[in-house]
C-alpha cells in the first residue's frame, strides 16, 4: 500500500509523518484528531504492508502482534493504545518510545568497549526476562528490535514472530516452516521448535558477538541448508576477530551461542547477572579460545545433531521457576556459629530442590572513608577479607551443578542494600537470619528482616537460630522417663 499523507485521519487518529518503512509494515507518528484526552506519551501507528507482492506472513505476523501486545505490561514494552479492524484497515497504535536501537552501536565505526557491550547486553537480557515472566518468547530479537532509552533500560519492539504460551501459535499453525530473521534465529527454531526462552538468549548472544566483533557469528544465510549449519557449527571465537575482547565476555557470548539449548544460560536473568558482574564469570575453555574448533569436532557435532530429537518447550514461567537466583545474606560480625549453620542448612535445602538455581552470597559492611592511597589499599584488603569469609562460609555446601558468586556491599542501611541488590539482579528468593545483623542493635534487630520481607520483590525466608543442644536435651529429659 502507498504511504499515507500527513493529516490523514483514521478512526480518530491523525497521521503526522512516516517514521519507518519496513519490509513488513509502515510506522507513522500519530496523534488524536480531536476530543480524546492526551495519553501522556507520544504515539505511533503500525500498518502492515498488504500489496500483491507481499507475503502472507505479513498479515499473520500482524495478527500475532495484535494478539500479544495488549497482554504485555511493564517498562520493557511499548504501551498498547488501540487496534484497527482486520477486515477494513488493520493497524496498531502504541506508545512511541524515544531512544536508539542497538543498530546504532553495531554500525558505529569503532567497536564499543567491553563495559558498554555488557551494559547493553544486560539491559536487553532484563527486558527479555520480563517477557519470559509473562510467558512470552520474542523469537525475533535483533539490533533493530531492541531500543535503548536515555535511562539505559531496554524496550523490545515488534512482536510479530513472538509466541505466547497461553494463546494459539498462529505462525506455527499457518506457516509450518522455520520463522525468524536468518542471522539471529536459534537452532531449535530452524527445526520448528518455538516457545523456548533460551532461543531469545541465543539471539542476544548473536547481538553481543556482533557488537564485540562487527561480524555475525553465522553470517546471514539465505537457504535452509545454511540455516541448519548452526545446529552443529561453533563460530570463530570473538577474540579471533577482536583481540581486545576480554576472556570473560567471550565466555558469556559463546555460552549464549551453544547449539544445544541446555548448554546456554538457563534464563535471561542468569545472563544479565554475569554481564553485570564480570568478575564473577566462571571461565572455561570457551573463554580462552583464540581459534575455532577443528573439523573433527564439527564432524562429531554434526553426527550428534543429525540424531537429535527436539522436544516441545515447557511454559517459560515453569522454566524460570526451575532456575531461580537465590540470594543469602551472610552476617559478618556478632553472629553465632549456630546462626551461620542454620543459614547454610536453609541454602542447602533450597538448592537441593532447584538443580538449576544460582547462588549469590552477599554480606553488607559499613562504608569506608578511604581518602589516601594507603586507605584505598586497606579498603581493598577489607573487601578481600570479607570475600574470603563468604567463600569459607559456603565451602561446606554442595554446589555441584550450581553457579555461585560472592558480593560485598557497602551501606549503612542493611535492609535497603539487600532489597536493592535483589531488585537489580532479578533475585527470586532471599534467605537471611531473623536476627543476625549486629547485637548492638538488638532492640531494633527485627527491622532488618521485617523491612526486607516487606520491601523485597521476591520470596523471603527468615532463618531462626536453633536452640542450643543442651536446651533441647533438657527439654526432652522430662519425657524420657515416661
Automatic annotation (TrEMBL):
Name of one Pfam family that matches: Usp
GO MF annotations, alphabetized: kinase activity
What are the transmembrane regions? none
Look up the domain of life of the source. Bacteria
Domain named Protein kinase is located at: 13-280
Q: Which InterPro entries match?
A: Kinase-like_dom_sf, Prot_kinase_dom, Rossmann-like_a/b/a_fold, Ser/Thr_kinase_AS, UspA
User: Which CDD domains does this entry report, sorted A to Z?
Assistant: STKc_PknB_like, USP-like
Which residue stretches, if any, does this entry annotate as coiled coil? none
Keywords attached to this Swiss-Prot or TrEMBL record, sorted alphabetically, are: ATP-binding, Kinase, Nucleotide-binding, Transferase
PANTHER family according to UniProt = MITOGEN-ACTIVATED PROTEIN KINASE KINASE KINASE 20-RELATED, SERINE_THREONINE-PROTEIN KINASE YBDM-RELATED
Q: What is this protein called?
A: Bifunctional serine/threonine-protein kinase/universal stress protein
Q: Organism, per UniProt?
A: Caldimonas aquatica
